[in-house]
Structures are given as structure tokens and as C-alpha cells.
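In the current project phase, we have settled on a layout for protein records. A sample record is reproduced below.
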Amino acid sequence: MTPGPRNSITDVSGIRVGNAHSEELLSGVTVILPEAPAVAAVDCRGGGPGTRETDALRSESLVEVVHAIVLSGGSALGLEAAGGMAHWLRKRGVGFPVGPEQVVPIVPSAILFDLNNGGDKSRIEEGTYSRLAQRAAETAEVEFDLGNSGAGMGAKAGTLKGGLGTASLIHNEYTVGAVAAANPFGSVTLPGRPEFWAWPFERQDELGGLPSPDVSVSLDLDFDFDSPFREAANTTLCVVATNARLTRPQAQRLAIMAQDGLARAIRPIHTPFDGDTVFVLSTGTQPLGAVPPIDLARLGMMAADCVARAIARGVYEAQSAGIWKSYRDTFLSAQVVRTES
């Protein structure tokens, strides 16, 4: 298994990503836009989720496909972003047909909490996140910025600045990619150290290419709530895409397996303060083989690895902003000082 040419969710053919944000608000929106309606599923394990249309993804529901997925900052205020995206799609005739000339776009969405990050939230007005979503849709491409971009603009990761990350893997004819807005309550690095919890899964020095952690040095694995606890709301949001042709139950299994990537990248994870949510999109261009469960198991492993890498990469690529100091300013600058001295 190797990363795709972009090491991005957009290595899955037919997937585009758009970002829009406000540096004054320190918040933003990320839109994942398939070129054609895609089979979808969702798995939510955080204790404080904020979502829209996730019940529509249940296997017993009427609608079989979605037309976009939206990840937004702004906490519950950001849920209006999906409405903005739905209007954008409807104007272009994209949606679930409900009459001779009427369509209803299906746009599942999830939000993260970024209200207390130092941005000027007095600028949030009715329609703010709806407009951001439409701006993101207008700019959706296969290339997109990471770190302080889209839904990652105002994110934080433990005590570090969080951000938007992506990763991909290709095995034979199958491609799996993930994009993550990393905003967890827990830490993405080993206690007091620059190594990411996701370091075993790094590809092509995407996380800085640090050497493996020194296993002879014991880690303080106690968790002190006094230091990282600043607010009772966080959340990491992920979207996994694959070209594999999946049924909705198979997509659901992929989402469940992909959640393991959060546990590999963040400690602690799925806390009462997080609304951790993983969406899956299947573009369906590549059928499964003669033994579908075997292919699905491999795809799930690839998805979990991509999610872990996307989360860590989002933090690695982020820049200091608001009240949060970036990973690079925290660890890499200190390494340079130690080297020079």
C-alpha cells in the first residue's frame, strides 16, 4: 500500500474538496463534493455530537446516496452550513428527485466547537456559515490547503493548534482517502514529546519524518485535566472516501473500522466533550472481488490508517492562531534552539 499521487482524499477519482474560512472569526467550513451521488454511511462515537441528516444514512432509510458532506466550525451555529450547500446544489439541479422539476439535495453535516479560540465571534450573523459553505463549494478542487483552512481554521488539538489534514492509500485497484478536521480534547502527541501518537503510520515524511520514539524512556501516561481542560466541547470530524463499490451496510462497516484511526492518533478519544464523527463516501467505480468481506477488511484497515495520518497531518500543517500555539512553534523551534546551542 502506498499513498496516492496527492496523498489526499482527492486521490479517489470524482472527489473534490472546497474550503472557506474567516481569519477574523477564526472559523470555517470544508465541503466534500462527489462528482456523482455517492453511497454514504456515518459512525459517531463522541459524547457531544452536532450533526444533520445522519439518520438519513441508516440502512433502512429511503435515500440511498448523498450529494455532499459538510464539516463546519461554529458549534451548533455552523449547522446552517449544510443548508447553504443544499441551496447551492439545488440551483444546479443536483439532489433527490421529488417531482418533475424538483430536487432535494442530501447533505449530511457535522460541526466542531471553535467558539473560544480567540476569534471575533461577534461577527457571526445569520447566514455566515451558509455563505462560507457556498464559497467553499465554488472553490472545490482536487488540490486544497491544509492546516489553518476550512473547518480546521479555528481548530485546536489538546493544547496545540489543530487543523485540516488529509491522507490516502492505494492497494491494487482500490483507493482510500481521508480528510480530517482535527479538534480533539485529547492530545495528538506523546506526553511532553514531539512524536505523534500516529507516528507508526507515517508515510513519506508527512509528519516531519522524526525518528521513532526512544522506547527506553518511560512516558508519563497520567492525564492531568488542569492543563488541557479549557472548554467542555471539541470534536474531530473525518470523511473517508473510496472508489470501492459498497452497499450501505458495507459502507457502515468501513466507517466503524475507520474510527480506529482516531484511537491511534488521539489520547483520550471519544470523550464526553467530543462529537467525533466519521463519514464514508463510496464512489463505486471499482467492484469488490470474489470474496467481498476480505476486500472490505483490507479497505477498513486502509481507512483507519488514513484517518490517523490525516489527523496528525492536520496538526503538523497548522500555524499558530488565536490562543493556540502550533505544533511546529511548540516542538520544532525548540529542537532548532537545542541544535544550535
In short: The longest strand covers residues 277-286. Residues 9-211+229-340 form a domain with the L-amino peptidase D-ALA esterase/amidase fold (CATH 3.60.70.12). Residues 41 and 58 are 7 Å apart (CA to CA).
